[in-house]
Amino acid sequence: MKKNSGYSLLRDPRTNKGTAFTPEERKKYGLEGLLPAQVETLETQMLRINGQLNLIESPINKYSYLSNLLETNETLFFNLIMNDPAKFLPLVYTPTVGEACEKFGHISRRVKGLFISINQKDHIKEILRNWPVEDVRFTVVTDGGRILGLGDLGICGLGIPIGKLALYTGCAGVPPEFTLPIVLDVGTNNEKFLNDPLYPGLRHTRIVGKAYDDFIEAFVVAVNEVFPKICIQWEDFKGVDAIRILNKYRNKVCTFNDDIQGTAAIATAGFISISRLMGRPFAEQRFLFLGAGAAAFGIADMLIQKFQKDGLSRKEALEHIWMFDVKGLLVKSRNDLADYQLQFAHDSEPSDNFAEAILKIKPTAIVGVSTVGGAFDKQVIENMSAVNERPIIFPYSNPTSHSECTAEQAYTWSEGRAIFASGSPFAAVTYEGITFTPGQGNNVFIFPALGLAVFATEAKRVTDEMLITAAEAVAEQVSLQDFESGLIYPKVDNILKVSLNVAEKIAAHIFDNGLAGVEKPADILAFLKSKMYVPEYK
Question: Domains plus CATH for the chain?
Answer without folding.
Answer: 6-83 (1.20.1370.30), 96-253 (3.40.50.10380), 261-441 (3.40.50.720), 445-530 (3.40.50.10380)
